[in-house]
Design a protein that fits this description.
The complex is a heterodimer. By secondary structure, chain A is mainly alpha-helical. Helix content of chain A is 79%, strand content 0%. Classes of the chains: A mainly alpha, B mainly alpha.
């Protein structure tokens, strides 16, 4: 049965069949030929997978990110960050990283962060005299923090398939996100000193106050969302819904730059994108249910523990596997399908599911920056009209820094587990 | 026929967008009501779960039209034009077949639940209603893949390549 599942999975994947559907087909084939279970179970399993309140956080966060990515919020946020750090050497570039960190705390999506911050900051960096290649690499890489700093859509999906607390995983993402952001800022400062990129503009009287007042609406959102979750005022799903209503209020009532036709398009696109993600999740959980019923995760665990002897070797091997998979398919889908397979292996090695979740999210972040399917690279290509090779080269120094940070976070679980252990456990 | 298809798609899009935004507003109202009026909507969680099923299947069906279903097209893009079209015909046929099957069993399940007369715990609606989107939109998914497959077959016969056709699922690796 395992061989049949593997063969049909790989064959259909290579044929270019949508991942969600190939999972449903593979599960059906296995049910028909290898079990006596009636196919009606497929319907029940698809329903059971979707019948989950936490799952609704995914479309809400995608929609909120879509609304905030329309420009007004991102522009105000950048102005505040520029005011805060722009006076330092390399200030505009540092403000870009800090704006990415903050926008990541609003949106939960990497490409949305690159679009929102990149579309404004790429021209601004060029005007301020920064090297074009450096600017491209910076935006592409710093934008990838969108999924590490909470809220994060891949984190919610991971929590659903692995039965982990969303609040814990969100909290675990804060330190790694700040660490990676700090590494990018350090590199930016070093480059600024090396190339003599200076601080820039002076502010008129009263301008600073206006920037802070305007930006306050954007800065309040992470406080409301994360503060609400951690004080127990609302659940992650409610927090996601509140961020939608808040984003709509700020865009439509305060800034008044979002038109209704554009809003309709954002709502429609976000809903379809979320549905496709949730559909993969439903089909994957159906597929995983079948694998679990056949005790395949236990067999996988026994096979791996027989060969690999250390928890860190296992984590590095899994990361390498995902990096390879990321060159041929979407890493988020790979995480949804493969993570439940390793449940017994993780238990065998005593690896904390929250730490493993952070490692998965970091590997996905890495996948966003590596060709041929790095989504952030495509987004920057669209923003700058440069080739994939050119954007990939620009991203390379940041990718190496990210690799070092990922290794550190993978091998020192305390970096991710410190905050959840201190506050939530 | 094209006008009906376009009207149907626009209706689906409108329902999808308004359902998502409407549910977000309801969740917001629920939190406000809980803290300001000390009154919780006990039915809200159940409603949101069932709406999630509805949004997923409706959106998945629309995803075929927009080509937003994630796939791995490494071999598809490397294959020759005719081979790629042939591969697409196979995947459309298989996708259509699996969704006709799910739709069929979905309706069978709906009928079974209707005969049992089971009701949901909080909303007190007949339990077959939350299952209806799976049954109904599996058929629309199957039909969309069938139409796409037929279009590819016609293109294959007319010796046109995949890139010249208006095909779905071109997006690779798009995600959060």
């Amino acid at each position: 049965m395992i061989a049949a599942i593997l063969i049909s999975f790989i064959l259909l994947l290579c044929l270019g069949m949508p991942i969600s559907i190939l999972l449903a087909v593979t599960a059906s084939v296995a049910l028909i030929f290898f079990t006596n279970t009636p196919l009606i179970i497929l319907v029940q399993q698809l329903f059971n997978a979707l019948d989950n309140y936490v799952l609704m956080a995914v479309p809400f966060f995608i929609l909120a990110g879509g609304i905030m990515g329309q420009g007004a919020i991102a522009r105000r946020l950048i102005a505040v960050m520029d005011l805060a750090v722009g006076r330092f050497r390399g200030g505009t570039a540092i403000a870009t990283v800090v704006a990415c960190v903050f926008f990541a705390a609003l949106s939960g999506s990497s490409p949305a962060t690159v679009v929102a911050i990149g579309s404004i900051m790429l021209p601004a960096l060029a005007r301020a005299g920064y090297d074009e290649r450096f600017s491209q690499g910076l935006i592409t890489s710093a934008g990838s923090l969108g999924i590490v700093i909470p809220p994060s859509i891949p984190m919610i999906l991971y929590c659903l398939v692995m039965n982990v607390s969303v609040a814990e995983l969100f909290m675990a993402g804060i330190l790694p996100g700040v660490l990676i952001g700090g590494v990018f800022i350090g590199y930016t400062y070093w480059m600024a000193r090396k190339n003599n990129w200076r601080a820039h503009r002076a502010y008129k009287k009263g301008e600073k106050l206006k920037i802070i007042r305007d930006g306050l609406w954007a800065l309040m959102l992470p406080v409301i969302v994360l503060g609400g979750i951690y004080t127990g005022i609302f659940t992650p799903t409610e927090a996601a819904a509140i961020s939608v209503v808040y984003a709509l209020f700020v865009e439509l009532v305060i800034y008044r730059e979002l038109t209704l036709p554009r809003l309709y398009r954002v709502c429609k696109d976000s809903a379809v994108l979320s549905a496709c993600l949730m559909f993969i999740l439903a089909c994957a959980m159906t597929f995983v249910w079948l694998l679990t019923a056949e005790q395949i995760p236990v067999k996988v665990a026994n096979a791996i523990i027989g060969v690999v002897h250390h928890w860190w070797t296992f984590l590095l091997l899994v990361s390498a596997l995902f990096l390879i998979l990321g060159t041929v398919m979407d890493d988020v889908s790979a995480m949804i399908i493969l993570s439940p397979l390793f449940v017994d292996t993780l238990k065998g090695f005593g690896i904390d599911f929250v730490h493993y979740g952070i490692v998965m999210v970091l590997v996905i972040e890495f996948g966003f920056l590596t060709p041929p399917f790095g989504l952030n690279l495509f987004v920057t290509m669209g923003l700058t009209d440069r080739s994939l090779t050119s954007v990939s080269r620009a991203t390379l120094p940041f990718l190496l820094l990210l690799l070092a940070a990922v290794l550190l976070i993978t091998l020192i679980p305390q970096i991710s587990l410190f905050l959840p252990t201190l506050i939530l456990r | 026929m094209k006008r009906i298809q376009s009207y149907w798609s626009h209706t689906e899009e409108g329902i999808l967008a308004f359902t998502l935004v409407g549910l977000a507003f309801l969740a917001f109202m629920e939190v406000v009501s809980r803290y300001l009026f000390n009154h919780s909507f006990t039915w809200f969680e159940e409603l949101s779960r069932y709406t999630g099923v509805f949004i997923t299947f409706l959106g998945a069906s629309l995803g075929v039209k927009y080509g937003t279903h994630f796939s791995m097209d490494l071999f598809l893009s490397k294959a020759g034009a005719r081979t790629a079209l042939f591969m697409r015909i196979i995947t459309c046929a298989l996708s259509s077949a699996i969704f006709f099957t799910i739709g069929y069993f979905g309706f069978a399940h709906v009928l079974k639940l209707k005969s049992f007369g089971v009701h949901s715990a909080a909303l007190q609606i007949p339990m077959y209603i939350p299952y209806l989107p799976i049954a109904f939109f599996s058929f629309t998914l199957a039909l969309r893949y069938m139409v796409l497959g037929i279009r590819h077959v016609v293109d294959f016969k007319n010796k046109r390549s995949l890139t010249e056709t208006r095909s779905g699922e071109k997006v690779v690796g798009e995600g959060p």
